[in-house]
Amino acid sequence: MKLEGYEIIREISRGPIATVYLGRQTVLDRPVFLKVLNENIHDHPDLLERFKREARICARLNHPNIVNIYDFGDAEGSFYLIFEFVKGRPLNEVIKKLHPLPLPVIYFILYEVAKGLHFAHQNGVLHRDIKPANIMIGDDGSVKITDFGLATSADLPNLTLQHAAVGTPAYMSPEQSTGKKLDPKSDIFSLGVTIYETATAHNPFLGQNIVDTLNNVLTKKPEPLKNLRQDCPLWFDQLVNSMLEKKAERRLSSLQTMLNHAQLKREVIDQEQFLSFLKNPESFKKSGSAEKKPVLQKSIKKTIPLILGAVFLSALLLFFLNYFRTSENRTPSQSNAVIVADSAQSPFVPDSKKVKEEWRAAAAADSIKNHLPERRVVQPPAKKEPQAVKELPEATTGRLMIFCTPWAQVFIDDRLVDTTPLNKPIELETGEYTLALKNPNYQSLVQKIRISPGQEDTLIFRLKPKVGILQISAFPWGKVFIDDSLKGITPLQIRIPAGRYRLTIKNPNFKIYTDTITVKSGEKIEKRIQLKK
What we know:
The protein has helices at 45-59, 91-98, 103-122, 174-177, 184-200, 210-219, 225-228, 234-243, 255-259, 262-267, 271-279, 281-286, 297-324, 352-371; strands at residues 6-14, 18-25, 30-37, 69-75, 78-84, 88-90, 125-126, 135-138, 143-145, 152-153, 397-405, 409-412, 415-419, 426-429, 431-439, 442-451, 456-462, 467-475, 479-482, 485-489, 492-497, 499-506, 513-519, 524-530. It is α+β, with helices and mostly antiparallel strands. The chain has 4 domains: 1-85, Phosphorylase Kinase, domain 1, CATH 3.30.200.20; 88-286, Transferase(Phosphotransferase), domain 1, CATH 1.10.510.10; 397-462, Carboxypeptidase-like, regulatory domain (Immunoglobulin-like, Sandwich), CATH 2.60.40; 467-530, Carboxypeptidase-like, regulatory domain (Immunoglobulin-like), CATH 2.60.40. The strands form 7 sheets. The chain has a 5-stranded antiparallel sheet, covered by helices on one side. It has a 4-stranded antiparallel sheet with strand order 13-12-15-16, with no helix packed on it. It is elongated, with a radius of gyration of 38 Å. Residues 154-166, 290-302, 326-356 and 361-378 have low confidence and may be disordered. One of its GO terms (molecular function) is ATP binding.
């Protein structure tokens, strides 16, 4: 495929609906992402509408934490989107490679995603598919939300998809999984699941199959983060829990509330520190994560008046001591206040004048000491040994869950592997396959699929029935009904899906004619009927 003004460099990923390419915008000489609708999807108007919806929604969301869309159109019969190029990798890959992520890093990712998602909510847009795979971590330290293909907008028509799950089950909110009306709190739940997974490297609701997963979303209470990570503070555990409340009315009220969270704002690092983690994770962890922001300024301001007051009292005390003193010739033995650090090593006795001066100095020091707050020696916290990055084994397989109406035999590369409804996902080695769904009374569906390592994809299909031809002649004439649905007046020839039907012919001056017919795919049935009085 050729696009005017763009050069396609290479394919990045291929899914059941669209293929993503790395490209270059020739006029501006900048890299871009090209998302092209697969050819086998062109005759599905619902998916085409979803593609156009993504373009319209993304075009209105110009924010640093949302991937921008540059262009949209069709070329050579193929529909495409041109996206901002983000050099980096999705969050799910970052989690796999660098788990466990330091908490300051998790705070930063949460804060950045919340800013972008809150902006979308302010513009009347719900994402509906927030998950690690839809969050890009740029090599420059940027964090951007991608894939608004399932998003909804208040001023765009509703869209019901027949060929793709509306959201990813393990990240859906309870209200989304049961088909209820959604609001921004649904995205907040999905973000909570995403951050939980970012902190623990596992999704708390993922089950053996989609039924288990949806049941977990509705009923399972995740293990508290503080029980899974010893370094997790109570405030963060409570924040994530508030995002994962089953009932929307009890959930975190809005992402603005999160962005105003005092502890989160105090603990979150900046993009430069996040970038240093991406460049050298081990060094970042060994350095104790991020330096804390200075918090001593207020305490110093409070302490200065105390010190000044103590100095004033000391000066006043010295004045009275000098006033009431009558003897200038006290010996050292008369003053217990004099402490000479090396007196045991000194062979001489100091003169009385020098002792007096030392006494005054000691008295002043004691006075200041008595009026200053008690000095506490704070021992530095014991340096924790940095947790070693757990090297997770590279996944070599992925899973595929298929839902099909009606039932169908599932073929992978011409090999029968199962029949829907599936009891569990199909596990396959990573790579590209040809998927075929077959039912003798319906048109077979064939398409390319790509299995990604460690991921589970869910596909939902509705097969089109095969058709036959029904030709009917009735004398003198009659209205033709198929399963009580009027199809026309004889003579009549119609295309009809394969299957069994009740045929009825009516003429007000004759008896009603009824029969049962079986239509086979690709075959023609001819019926000549003489109506009776």
